[in-house]
Amino acid sequence: MTSAPAIGFDYRPSRLPGRLLAIAAALALVAIGLCGAPAGLKLVLMAGTLALAILAGGRSRRSSIAGVGCGPDGWIVYEADRRQLPAMLLSHRVIGTCVLLRLKTSVAIETLLLAPDNSDADIRRRLRMRLAVQPRLAETP
Description:
Order of helices and strands: EHHEEEEEH
Strand content: 25-35%
Radius of gyration: 19 Å
Distance between the termini: 30 Å
Structural class: alpha+beta
Helix content: 25-40%
């Protein structure tokens, strides 16, 4: 399967990071509520936690990436308007059944999470096989 000419897939952001963020924010709010700080400080900390969680949650749901392709010539990222941008794989991680890709384009560095809720199991399997034989281009910071 690693000799397949190309792998391409549509991309939409996973809901998994948002769900994990909601759990972490809820636990943080409970911890703030149970701490011994004065009530005014608790309110400020809770408001700040909620604001940051909402901002991070909104950011995790937005993506300018509509698709990704990997072929013999390298990686291609398709933006929402279907404009093609050549990309370079900076790093990848396989975490359980999820695949995390960091791709650098001329515009930005994109981090894509391929999880069971936003990608097909066959695509993730084929990507894992291709990434296992592909030389690592850069080390993760």
